[in-house]
Write a structure and sequence with these properties.
- The structure is a single chain.
- The chain is mainly alpha-helical and 929 residues long.
- The chain starts with 6 loop residues before the first helix and ends with a helix.
- The longest helix is centred in the last third of the chain and has 18 residues, at 770-787.
- Strand 3 and strand 4 (91-93) form a beta hairpin.
- The radius of gyration is 44 Å and the shape is elongated.
- The strands form three sheets. A five-stranded parallel β-sheet has the order 2-5-6-1-7. A two-stranded antiparallel ribbon has the order 3-4. The protein has a two-stranded antiparallel ribbon with strand order 8-9.
């Protein structure tokens, strides 16, 4: 086996052997820590070709045989296959174990007493042959005293004899004191070979040789940093790193490394083992005083142990070089000893005033809660863990306190805290802690924060009636913080879940006084800003205020639903781009914080925003991803949000099988008492319409009508269920009923979302005559461009194209049909217009470029709107220019295209392939908001 970084030490041994062949006795002591390669060096030396003529006695000392006199010499003779030798011609003295035991037992004392002469004479006769005698003792510091005495006496008689004694040692006697025999050994003239750790270069050469190829320099550096060059650890890491292949890119600590670590720690002294176990249990650097108390040794003993552990490559200072080493040391301990050690550490840290997190970690490892200080420490540590987004650690601390807690009120508080933590990743698991708290919440036995936590669980599960009862019986808020919690919960109950007002309300929090109360509690807060946005006509300022409040809002257990509602409010207020940007930032934060529930809900909101913008692909993918983030039991009634989005999106893209797959999922019955159930029924109804089941769709839409009237009536302007009813009635031939539904939608008081109004206008247009229909559809198209819904915009363009076609305006119909096809393609849905309207026979390939060059961008805008039938005054209002400017542009357009009136514009624009709106203008206005 090839040695690395050991040429100097091997040269010392070879030189000593050469000298002993000249009848000059030699002693070489090889020193080095555990795992430094002493044994490998010795084997390499003894296996050299020129050792074939030597008589070699090789043995290894063991701690278990230190009390057995002459045990090492017996091993030497047995391994060397030495036969009994005569002491004189007439008497044979067998050099067996019994002979050495009888003649050479060391009798102790303060001075050195050599063995009886017969022993030494027997050994010396082995060197009288043709070759020299080589006595090699591995781990010589563990030799029994009698064998050590024999070796020392042999050296004293071998000054002019061909004898070489090689002893490998760790550098200490292994007993904590130096015996007289050991002192006599190192007093003898000798040469010393000191084995240090491998250099970084040596480690690199070893890795290159073992892997059979040159590795990047960084790999050798990483192995050296992980082992400090200890050959045993390097080989162990190499074995683990190549277990599943020959490619090595970094050190991997596995079984071989753990076994090597345990080999090193058990070779040392008992106090070294106690220190290394203490360091592994502490998991962080500590002073010598703390280590000495815990390891039951002196500070000097601690420093000696730490130095030894550094020298063998396990520690870097007071820290393990690899976490796997600490894990191996702890796993090697029996459970009671490990528990006791962690208890002692926690108690010592408490007396030293250590941070709660440090103490709690050891209490958790010990599975103990010492009183009276343990519960407080664990609760404080749980709050710190949750603030660091470590839900598992937080839950483990609270579980430990709750297990031993006997006070009912304290148990309720702990259960609520535990539920808040687990809610982040698994609402179903949190529900197990919250179910027993329903009655205490109703009785006012919980504080406001814990009551709000229970109410959130009720609403999440769809228990809206009990939630309303709890709101009505809540104790009056006694602080601004309590008042804010109460207002947010009540606000979410009415506007996010769409639940009607309770029969009686606590201190004016319900009903019309809610918005004023929200503003009074915290001026400029998120709840107050959302109340303004959803309670009146949406403006740029009100939407911007909500978006600004979201930027300063940190997701936590109380305001997740409020944040989701704020995002949806912005999106429904014709600002989906603003909502998407804010949602993406919050979703990124939720992913970083490993909050599965937050990711699922915010992902559902982001999918809904994509749906409102007509991005069906993103809506479907986002909804499906959100649904898979939580299992059905964790979604509660909120499952209706991603499910409705997925059904809408898959249906719009023609993926009916995918929509059916979502519809086959079980949904909780209480979901239909919330707005999420209404949205689910709407999505299912539209799927029924597309798949030729109009009466089933009508039934779902009528159910939506009934549920909406029972819930929060203020939400009706944002959920166009009347337009859904109009569409279903049109499909079954009830045009008059459809018209009445559309007109009722348009007469609703208060502000409308542009999208809801546009949908009602489309339904009204469908029941109107062609000339009136075109005017209504142009108004709907303007609204849809404002809110950015490309999918519904494509449908409105298709309706307008059909209206022009019915009026005999075929060129204008084809022009609008092309725009419908472009919008449909942008949102990944099938074109809603007939293929013949998209045909353009007789046009040359280069005419589009020619047409674009004929008119300026401003002229294209004016000509496009004029071709669609807009008046000069309407064009002026849309483009924000004067009527005179419009007239001037039209004059130039007529001259360039050689037309005399508006009616000639559509065929000329088709002839020259002039877009009806410039790309720049369309891009700006289609994404407005």
């Amino acid at each position: 086996m090839r040695l690395f970084d050991r040429s100097k030490e091997l040269h010392i041994l070879n030189e000593a052997f050469t000298e002993c062949t000249r009848r000059s006795g030699r002693l070489v002591i090889v020193t080095g820590g555990p795992g430094s390669g002493k044994t490998q060096l010795l084997h390499e030396f003894l296996a050299a070709p020129d050792r074939s003529g030597a008589r070699i006695l090789h043995g290894t000392a063991h701690p278990a045989q230190r009390d057995r006199p002459m045990s090492l010499l017996r091993q030497l003779l047995r391994n060397g296959e030495v036969q009994p030798l005569p002491l004189n011609p007439t008497q044979r003295v067998g050099i067996h174990a019994e002979a050495f035991s009888r003649h050479s037992e060391y009798r102790g004392g303060t001075g050195f007493e050599g063995p009886e002469p017969d022993t030494t004479e027997a050994l010396l006769r082995l060197a009288e042959g043709d070759g020299p005698l080589v006595v090699a003792v591995d781990d010589a510091h563990l030799m029994d005293e009698a064998s050590l005495c024999a070796v020392v006496h042999l050296l004293g008689r071998s000054r002019f004899r061909p004898v070489l004694v090689v002893c490998t040692t760790s550098g200490h006697s292994g007993t904590g004191r130096c015996s007289a025999a050991h002192a006599e050994l190192i007093r003898r003239p000798h040469r010393r070979a000191r084995l240090g750790p491998l250099s970084e270069r040596g480690v690199g050469e070893l890795l290159d040789t073992q892997s059979g190829a040159a590795l990047p320099a960084g790999v050798g550096r990483a192995f050296h940093r992980a082992t400090a060059g200890n050959p045993l650890l390097v080989h162990a890491l190499l074995d683990d790193s190549t277990r599943f292949g020959h490619d090595i890119d970094r050190p991997i600590a596995g079984t071989a490394y753990r076994q090597a670590v345990l080999s090193l720690v058990h070779r040392g002294e008992p106090r070294h083992l106690r220190v290394v176990r203490t360091l592994a249990a502490l998991g962080a650097p500590a002073s010598s005083g703390i280590l000495s108390d815990l390891a039951d040794t002196s500070p000097t003993g601690v420093e000696e142990a730490v130095e030894a552990l550094n020298s063998v490559g396990l520690l870097d200072g007071h820290v393990f070089r690899l976490p796997a080493a600490a894990t191996a040391v702890l796993d090697d301990m029996d459970a009671p000893a490990r528990t006791t050690l962690h208890e002692r550490i926690a108690d010592l840290l408490y007396r030293c005033g250590a941070p709660a997190g440090d103490m709690a970690r050891h209490l958790r490892a010990a599975d103990r809660v010492p009183y009276p200080w343990g519960p407080g420490v664990l609760r404080a540590a749980a709050e710190q863990a949750l603030a660091a987004d470590d839900v598992e650690l937080c839950s483990s601390y609270l579980d430990l306190v709750l297990r031993d807690c006997t006070d009912p009120q304290e148990r309720n508080a702990l259960s609520a805290a535990l539920a808040r933590a687990e809610w982040r990743v698994n609402p179903a698991a949190a529900g197990a802690h919250l179910e027993p708290l329903r009655r205490p919440a109703l009785e006012g036995a919980l504080n406001m924060r814990d009551t709000a936590t229970v109410m959130r669980h009720m609403l999440w599960q769809g228990d809206t009636e009990l939630a309303a009862e709890t709101v009505a019986t809540l104790v009056p808020a006694r602080s601004p913080g309590d008042a804010q919690i109460l207002v947010e919960v009540e606000f979410v109950r009415q506007w996010f879940y769409g639940v009607g007002l309770p029969a009686r309300s606590p201190q004016g929090t319900a009903g019309g006084d809610l918005h004023r109360r929200a503003s009074d509690v915290r001026d400029g807060g998120l709840a107050a800003q959302v109340a303004i946005l959803v309670g009146g006509v949406a403006t740029d300022d009100s939407a911007a205020a909500v978006a600004q409040a979201l930027q300063g809002s940190k997701l936590d257990h109380l305001n997740l639903e409020l944040v989701a509602m704020a995002l949806l409010a912005i999106a429904h207020a014709d600002r989906p781009a603003v909502a998407a940007e804010a949602c993406d930032a919050l979703l990124e934060s939720a992913v970083e914080r490993r909050a599965t529930t937050w990711q699922a809900l915010l992902g559902s909101v982001r999918a809904e925003i994509a749906l409102l913008r007509g991005d069906m692909t993103k809506a479907a993918e986002g909804a499906d991803t959100a649904l898979s983030s939580l299992h059905d039991g964790s979604w509660g009634v909120l499952a209706g949000l991603p499910m409705s989005t997925a059904i809408f999106a898959h249906t719009a893209m023609g993926a009916y099988d995918e929509a059916e797959r979502v519809l086959k999922r079980d949904v909780p019955e209480p979901m239909f008492r919330t707005v999420f159930g209404i949205q689910y029924l709407r999505a299912r109804g539209h799927h029924y319409l597309v798949t030729d089941r109009p009466f089933a769709a009508l039934n779902d839409f009528e159910t939506c009508s009934r549920l909406m009237r029972q819930g929060n009536s203020s939400l009706q302007k944002g959920i166009p269920w009347r337009s859904d009813l109009a569409l279903a009635n049109l499909r079954i031939g009830k045009a008059r009923t459809a018209r009445e539904c559309a007109e009722e939608q348009l007469r609703l008081p208060g502000g409308h979302s542009s999208r809801a109004r546009a949908m009602a206008l489309r339904m009204l247009a469908a029941t109107s005559k062609p000339h009136r229909r075109a005017s209504l559809l142009r108004e709907a198209i303007d609204l849809l461009k404002l809110c950015g819904d490309q999918h519904t915009l494509a449908q409105a363009y298709a309706d307008l194209s059909a209206a022009h076609y019915e009026l005999g305006e075929y060129a204008r119909a084809r022009l609008v049909a092309r725009q419908a096809a472009r919008e449909a393609e942008a949102c990944s849905v099938e074109s809603p217009v007939d293929a013949h309207l998209l045909e353009d026979p007789g046009q040359s390939e280069g005419s589009e470029a020619e047409g674009t060059a004929i008119l300026s961008d401003a002229e294209c805008r004016v000509a496009g709107l004029a071709a669609l039938g807009y008046t000069n005054r309407e064009i002026s209002g849309r483009l924000h220019v004067t009527i005179s400017t419009v007239e001037q542009h039209l004059t130039r357009v007529y001259r360039k295209l050689n037309v005399a009136s508006r009616s000639e514009l559509p065929p000329k624009m088709l002839e020259h392939r002039i877009p009806k709106l410039s790309d720049r203008w369309a891009a700006t206005h289609s994404s407005a908001g």
